[in-house]
Amino acid sequence: MRLGLALGYWGRGPSPDHVPLAQEAERLGYDSVWTAESWGSDAFTPLTWIAARTSRIKLGTAVAQMAARSPTTTAMHALTLDHLSGGRMLLGLGLSGPQVVEGWYGRPFPKSPLTATREYVDVVRQVLRREGPVELDGRFHPLPYGGPDATGIGKPLKSITHPFRADLPVLLGAEGPRNIAQTARIADGWLPLYWSPTRTEVYEASLADAPEGFLVAPMARARVCDDIAEGLLPVKAMLGFYIGGMGHAKRNFHADLMARMGYEEEARRIQRLFLDGRREEAVLAVPDSFADEISLVGPRERIAERLELWRKEPVTDLLVLAPDPHTLRVLAELNA
């Protein structure tokens, strides 16, 4: 199992720790570093900044939001950074949810998310393969565009720039069973949001058709500390926000995932509390047991024992949200 460093997205402003953490991860032998975006900082610019200050570590987006860019624009970002970094780019994509897509990007959330995702990946692949002009008779991403307000003179085009790699890896952040199953068919890897190494049966059917070499790269917050309850607080804060606030009461993919993992009653309670404005209570309502099973928190000996569970198939890469070099170093030593 390879290790990756997940930096997420910025809060109020850029973190001065991100580049030093990425450099330390590279020194420790981590395979990859990942950035994200929500409705603030973008995923590609910080990754380019890190690329210029590292030499070996792979560079991933976990995830770049599809609604933020047309698929050809995303392919342009990916092939550009792949060239500048000498072939280190890993393109992780995610559909996001209706509140972000419609509220931030001002676009309709696709009524057929699987079709929209499939078309998006198809276009990105065409750009990267550069076998001919990009064309797609698509419902969501038609190229050339031929809608009712089109001029009618759109022309299929082929990238001027020759991509560094035609097979640049494309990974998808997927949560629903059908979406995960499609990911196994059309992508090079999957980026699970929550992964429990003790509940792999939740994903088993969806991954049944995954090809050899398919990447499964879950993200987990990690912290070496003596007080487990205190160490889990950031995990619970993240879960409270995602399950309670990242979605509508009637349509929240994160809450639905927690429910499928055996915590349906708790997920709905967190939603209710958060939507009622009782955010601190929502965080405290996150069960310690759930926060614990999707993270690596505690003394070194405890993390060493639990890390063995994460090493089991189908996990190929563990993307670590670790705020301090000490935790990064301990994980590198334990995974050696």
Written overview of the protein:
Strands 1, 2, 3, 4, 5, 6, 7, 8, 9, 10 and 11 form an eleven-stranded parallel sheet that branches. The protein has helices spanning 18-27, 44-51, 71-84, 98-103, 113-129, 177-186, 201-204, 228-245, 253-275, 279-284, 288-293, 300-310, 325-335, and strands spanning 2-8, 32-35, 58-61, 64-65, 89-94, 170-173, 189-190, 215-216, 219-224, 296-298, 317-321. The protein is an alpha/beta fold. The chain starts with a strand and ends with a helix. The protein contains 13 helices and eleven strands. Helices cover 43% and strands 13% of the residues. The radius of gyration is 20 Å and the shape is globular. The model has no long low-confidence stretch (mean pLDDT 94). It comes from Streptomyces capitiformicae. Keywords: Oxidoreductase.
Short structural description:
This protein is 43% helix and 13% strand.
Please give the share of residues in helix: 40-55%
| Average pLDDT for all residues | 94
How many whole angstroms does the radius of gyration measure?
20 Å
Largest beta-sheet characterization: 11 strands, parallel
Give the total of beta strands: 11
Strand content: 5-15%
So what's the overall shape? Answer: globular
Return residue spans where pLDDT drops below 50 for at least 5 consecutive residues.
none
The computed structural class is alpha/beta
SSE succession: EHEHEEHEHHEHEHEEHHHHEHEH
Q: How many helices in DSSP terms?
A: 13
Termini, distance in Å? Answer: 10 Å
